[in-house]
Amino acid sequence: MSLTGIGEVSELITTAINKIWPDKTEQEKQAIAAATMIVQGQLDVNKAEAANPSVFVAGWRPFIGWVCGSACAWNWVGLPVAKALLILLGYEVALSPADLQEMMPVLIGMLGLGGYRTYEKVRNAEGNR
Questions:
Q1: What pTM does this model have?
Q2: 24-43, pLDDT tens digit by residue?
C-alpha cells in the first residue's frame, strides 16, 4: 500500500466503473475468441470424420447430400415426367412429391458450406489449388 493510497483508490474506482459499464471491446474479443475455439473444434472433428475409412463415419455427409439431391430430382424432374408418362399410358395414379420442407435447410446448409469452400479455392486460401 502506498503512503497516499491513491493507487488503491484509483484501482477500486476503475473496477467499479468496469462492473457498471463493461468494456465492449474486451467482451467482443472474448466472444470472438470463444467462437473461434468452437469453429476450430468443429473443424478438427470434421477432419477426423473425413479421414476415417469407415463409410458409417466418413460417408454420412455424401449420403445426406444424395438423399436431398434425389428428393429434389424427384420433385422437379422425376415426378413431372412420371405423371406425363402415366397419363400418356392411360393410368390414373396419384404420385406425391417428396416433402422438402425438412430437407431443404439441410441441403441449403450443405450447399452453403460447399459454396464457401469453392470461394476459398478460388481465392487460394490456405494454399488450396
A1: 0.45
A2: 777 778 888 888 887 777 77
